[in-house]
Design a protein that fits this description.
Blueprint (H helix, E strand, L loop, with lengths): L5 E12 L2 E6 L5 E3 L2 E5 L4 E3 L12 E7 L4 H6 L8 E10 L5 E18 L4 E8 H4 L28 E10 L2 E4 L15 E4 L2 E7 L5 E4 L11 E5 L6 H6 L25
Parallel strand pairs: 2-4
Antiparallel strand pairs: 1-2, 1-7, 3-4, 5-6, 6-9, 7-8, 8-9, 10-11, 10-15, 11-14, 12-13, 12-15, 13-14
């Protein structure tokens, strides 16, 4: 028989690092749990996937989150973040004292996508559990590109050139540094990334000069900051040979998808 002195509430935490976190609950009042205060947000709704032993990773949806400020506001404006861990827990509270008498862990994963409803001050967040991020594509890729992981010096062993520069202009996807690059090799930094603290944004295109076209809009807070710019690699044999002088470590399979149907057409 269920204990009539207990009632269930749901709490959710969004943690970027030890200094940035948001704690929310649908309880109708603030809840203290595990050393943190979960702020009342009655509008919040949870669509939690069933626990399964299958390899798939269905979405976990957290709806109608009030944009309270801090990094939630930056998320609603599509500012990039390195990793946001999400934990959803069902708590059993004593109806008289409010003390936590039981806990059930419902979901752990990472923020995958944000859908802001800016006109009404709310946002929806889609999360993926850890199975999604450990998924590995099976089979042999039909590609001429190298299979090594370049960044961080893994696999191919290439030294990743990097330089520190100040940002003088932030305009959407375009950022400009205040000083000339030390290494002026054309396209050295193309497909690399720019990093500030825990945030990395891929360089979509760079040939030479001080302007960098990014894959995501840079945060306006980067203006005036000193960032680190890392060299990139398109993983092609030409770039491996001509820019990185590392052809001996190239791990391409040497074939690509043909542009005709081999069963019915000739090359």
């Amino acid at each position: 028989m269920a204990d009539t002195n207990l009632h269930s509430v749901t709490v959710v935490s969004f943690v970027v690092n030890t200094s940035e976190a948001v704690y929310l609950t649908n309880a109708g009042f603030n809840v203290d749990y595990d050393g943190n205060t979960y702020i009342n947000s009655e509008s919040i709704e949870f669509d939690i996937p069933e626990i399964s032993g299958m390899m798939g990773a269905p979405d976990c949806k957290i709806k109608h989150i009030h944009i309270l400020g801090g990094f939630l506001t930056e998320l609603s404006n599509h500012a990039p973040y390195n990793k946001i861990e999400v934990s959803i827990i069902e708590l059993e509270l004593d109806t008289e004292t409010g003390a936590v008498e039981g806990e059930h862990f419902l979901f752990n994963g990472l923020v995958y996508q944000v859908a802001p409803q800016s006109l009404i001050g709310y946002m929806d967040i889609i999360c993926k559990d850890w199975k999604y991020y450990t998924d590995i594509t099976a089979g042999v890729p039909c590609t001429e590109q190298c299979a090594w992981q370049y960044f961080g010096g893994k696999g191919c062993g290439a030294y990743v050139i990097n330089e520190a520069h100040s940002i003088v202009t932030v305009s959407g996807y375009l950022v400009t540094i205040g000083e000339d690059l030390i290494n002026t090799t054309a396209q050295l930094f193309n497909k690399g990334y720019i990093e500030f603290e825990d945030i990395r944004i891929k360089i979509k295109y760079h040939n030479t000069g001080r302007d960098f076209q990014l894959s995501k809009a840079a945060p306006s807070s980067w203006l005036g900051k000193t960032v680190t710019i890392y060299a990139g690699c398109s993983r092609s044999l030409d770039v491996c040979k001509s820019i990185h002088n590392n052809e001996v470590q190239f791990l391409g399979l040497g074939h690509s998808m043909v542009d005709y149907h081999p069963m019915f057409e000739n090359p």
